[in-house]
Amino acid sequence: MQTITSADGTSIAYETDGDGPPLVLLHGGGTRRYWEPFVPRFSDDFTVVRPDRRGRGDSGDGDEYDIGREVEDARAVVDAVAGDPILFGHSFGGLQALEAARDAPVQAVIAYEPAYLVGDYRKRANLASRMQAQLENGNRREAMKLHLEEVIHGGEIDELDRWLEEWPAWPEYAEHVENAARMDRALEDHQLSETLDVDAPALLLTGSEGPSHLRESVRAVHDALPESRLLEFDGVGHLGPTEAPERIATELRRFLEETEAADPTIEGEQI
Fold first, then answer.
1. Distant-in-sequence, close-in-space partners of 139: CB < 8 Å, separation ≥ 6
2. H or E segment at 50?
3. Which residues contact 27 (CB under 8 A, 6 or more apart)?
4. How many domains is the chain partitioned into structurally?
5. Same domain for 206 and 177
6. What is the pLDDT of residue 270?
7. Are residues 197 and 236 in the same domain?
8. Domain range enclosing 183
9. Concatenated DSSP letters for 70-109?
């Protein structure tokens, strides 16, 4: 494990595997361990870099929180690696990757269901306040259940507790509930720019079973990017990079190999 110092002095921890051009993986919830099923598919050909987001894993935290600080953390990782990296982010990490790529030198940026809130959903979003009410009553696990139900399942799942019993990350995932609540509040206040001025090839990914608000979001991001390709994975949900790592790794490699010849206007392919 190594550490770097972000713009506000926060220590950001990261782990590297393999050898080759840098591939930075930015997680959403949890920690850098989220990417463990994905790393072996790239570590033979890339230096795979996995940071912990601030306040999670082995990273430090600051006195104040906003999305801009998390973007600065990603930029600090970009500056720390040798060469211009490829950024691949999942969920909040997808937003983090896209925002960092606006003024950081990157070879390409890839985002799976980046966590922008758009349209009517953003106007009525109240997940953070619902979570805060549970936290104030001492119900940390119930607060995290609200987050998981909304973010992973779009608020539409029968027998959430049964699903959680079969999910390996539970109940340890609830340790991050305060960070999840502050992130959700910041996302509710964050506005997607009409244009994301990213000067690098961009690949946007979604799953047919992902939450409807994030499937709407990824299409809004596609419209905001000057050059992007959008792919949808049939039968895959919001946890796509760990749910179907081989399928997603195959498409990432294809994108990286074809980037120079890719038609940036391709939209809505389903695979």
1. none
2. strand 47-51
3. 34, 35, 50, 52, 53, 89, 90, 91, 93
4. 2
5. no
6. 53
7. yes
8. 121-187
9. HHHHHHHHHHHSSSPPEEEEETHHHHHHHHHTTTS--SEE
pTM score > 0.90 for this model? yes
Query: Are 13 and 52 in contact, with CB atoms under 8 Å apart?
Result: yes
Q: What is the pLDDT of residues 174-186, one digit of tens each?
A: 999 999 999 999 9
Q: Which residues contact 254 (CB under 8 A, 6 or more apart)?
A: none
Cα separation, 21 vs 82, in Å, equals 8
Q: Which amino acid is it at 55?
A: G
Residue 28 has pLDDT above 60, yes or no: yes
- My answer on whether 172 and 252 are in the same domain is no
Residue 4 bridge partners (DSSP): 12
Instruction: Give dist(CA 22, CA 187) in Å, integer.
Output: 28
Could you give the CA distance from residue 198 to residue 27 in angstroms, rounded to a whole number?
A: 20
Q: Are 110 and 221 in a shared domain?
A: yes
Question: Based on the domain organization, do 41 and 105 belong to the same domain?
Answer: yes
Q: Are residues 107 and 147 in the same domain?
A: no
